[in-house]
């Protein structure tokens, strides 16, 4: 009986230690696991890895090709941070999914662009053209803002850039309720943002996020982009679970990503397709 009791106590102790270890498996003073889109986010993080290593901090990068799993993984503790999204998307995601994620820092912005499919110039865009847009509230609405700025549609009153800046919860801004006038009878085709580049041959044009345009190798074919003012509202962020903003590894990563060295890398590497946030 004494031997059995000792075994059970030892087992309980091991379980306890394992549980404690799992709580910090993705974030500690010397380790951080970050989920990121392949380009440009993971590429930028790779520039930060050796700098952090000199400080005794290991940065592990896990790449994702969608906009949902990196947030659910961060909420569950399978990531220590993520770097792929802008703040309006994060706010909307929290409201829609009851997650508890927050901004640790603003890093860069990527002007949203219009890319050619069957139609190779905006002047030639026909009546009834099929236009691909992201199917999430924030990037879908952002696409409509760009098309409105280009004069193709008119949006309802109040649905403007300020709407995104002031949003504190779930957004309700889509092609179904946002458009007041559509003189060219454009047919909007909402779809997962990551799939838009591959579907360009079936569309007249598509409005595509910069990271997916980069990943698909089509960034240099862009027909029009957002203004810097608009794109700046959608600055990409390093996100963490609420309460982890001041963790040592998080703060160290923020300092590196906002450093002059990384800003210079972004400016030289991407030539305006990705723009570092100097201050926000």
Tell me what you see in this structure.
This protein is an alpha/beta fold and 280 residues long. The chain has two domains: 27-110 and 234-276, D-Maltodextrin-Binding Protein, domain 2 (3-Layer(aba) Sandwich), CATH 3.40.190; 113-226, D-Maltodextrin-Binding Protein, domain 2. It is built from eleven helices and 14 strands. The chain has helices at 2-23, 38-54, 69-76, 87-97, 137-149, 161-166, 196-199, 210-216, 228-233, 248-257, 260-270; strands at 27-28, 31-36, 58-63, 81-86, 101-109, 113-116, 130-134, 154-155, 179-181, 187-191, 205-208, 224-225, 236-241, 275-276. Strands 1, 2, 3, 4, 5, 13 and 14 form a seven-stranded mixed β-sheet that branches. The chain has a five-stranded mixed β-sheet with strand order 10-7-11-6-12. Strands 8-9 form a two-stranded antiparallel ribbon. The radius of gyration is 22 Å and the shape is globular. The protein starts with a helix and ends with a strand.
């Amino acid at each position: 009986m004494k031997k059995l009791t000792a075994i059970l106590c030892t087992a309980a102790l091991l379980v306890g230690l394992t549980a404690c270890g799992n709580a910090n498996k993705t974030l500690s003073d010397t380790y951080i696991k970050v989920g990121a889109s392949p380009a440009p986010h993971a590429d930028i993080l790779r520039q930060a890895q050796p700098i952090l290593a000199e400080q005794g901090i290991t940065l592990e990068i896990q790449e994702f090709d969608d906009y949902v799993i990196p947030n659910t993984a961060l909420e569950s503790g399978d990531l220590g941070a993520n770097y792929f999204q802008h703040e309006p998307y994060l706010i909307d995601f929290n409201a829609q999914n009851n997650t508890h994620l927050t901004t640790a820092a603003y890093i860069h912005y990527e002007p949203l662009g219009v890319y050619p499919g069957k139609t190779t110039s905006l002047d030639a865009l026909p009546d009834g053209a099929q236009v691909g847009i992201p199917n999430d509230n924030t990037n879908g609405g952002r696409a409509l803002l760009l098309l409105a700025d280009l004069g193709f549609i008119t949006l309802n009153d109040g649905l403007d850039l300020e709407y995104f800046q002031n949003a504190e919860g779930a957004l309700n801004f889509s092609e179904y309720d946002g458009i007041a006038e559509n003189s060219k009878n454009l047919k909007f085709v909402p779809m997962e943002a990551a799939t838009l580049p591959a579907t360009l041959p079936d569309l007249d044009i598509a409005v595509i996020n910069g990271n997916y345009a980069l990943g698909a190798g089509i960034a240099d074919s862009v027909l029009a982009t957002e203004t810097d003012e608009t794109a700046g509202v959608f600055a990409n962020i390093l996100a963490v679970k609420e309460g982890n903003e001041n963790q040592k590894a998080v703060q160290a990563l923020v300092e590196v990503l906002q450093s002059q060295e990384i800003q210079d890398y972004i400016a030289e590497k991407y030539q305006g397709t990705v723009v570092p946030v100097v201050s926000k």
